[in-house]
Amino acid sequence: MRTSQDFLRAGAAVTFIGFIILLLGIVLTIFQRSASSQMGGLIMIGPIPVAFGSSPEITTNMLGLGLIVSILYLFLWKMKH
After folding, report:
1. Nearest to 42 by CA among 23, 58, 18
2. C-alpha dist (Å) from residue 52 to 16, 33, 59, 71, 74
3. Is 80 found in the same domain as 57?
């Protein structure tokens, strides 16, 4: 049977791996910087996505990703209750 300590370790490991991937992405972006590079991002405030980007295409893609994450969040929340 799993204990809360196992879930705490798993959560800490996933968070640590996420930070490593984020830092690796930043470093690779700096080294591969070109004039035609585009960037975008997504901020989730609860189930509400806030998308931004350097071009309309990137912003639309980020908004689509945000909507998928929001639907998944609401679906999982509904399954829990």
Report:
1. 58
2. 25, 19, 5, 19, 22
3. yes
Domain that holds residue 47: 38-81
Under 8 Å CB-to-CB from 48, ≥6 apart: which residues?
Answer: 70
Residue in this structure with the two tokens 């998928």, named with its chain if needed: 68
Q: Are residues 59 and 79 in the same domain?
A: yes
For tokens 């996420």, what's the residue? 18
How is residue 47 written in tokens?
């189930």
Of the chain, the percentage scoring pLDDT greater than 90 comes to 48
Q: Which amino acid is at 18?
A: G
66's CB contacts (< 8 A; 6+ apart) are 42, 44, 49, 50, 51
Give me the mean pLDDT over the 67-79 stretch. 90
Domain count, the chain: 2
Q: What is the pTM of this model?
A: 0.58
Within 10 Å of residue 70's Cβ, how many Cβ atoms?
Answer: 15
Q: Which two tokens stand for residue 38?
A: 């585009």
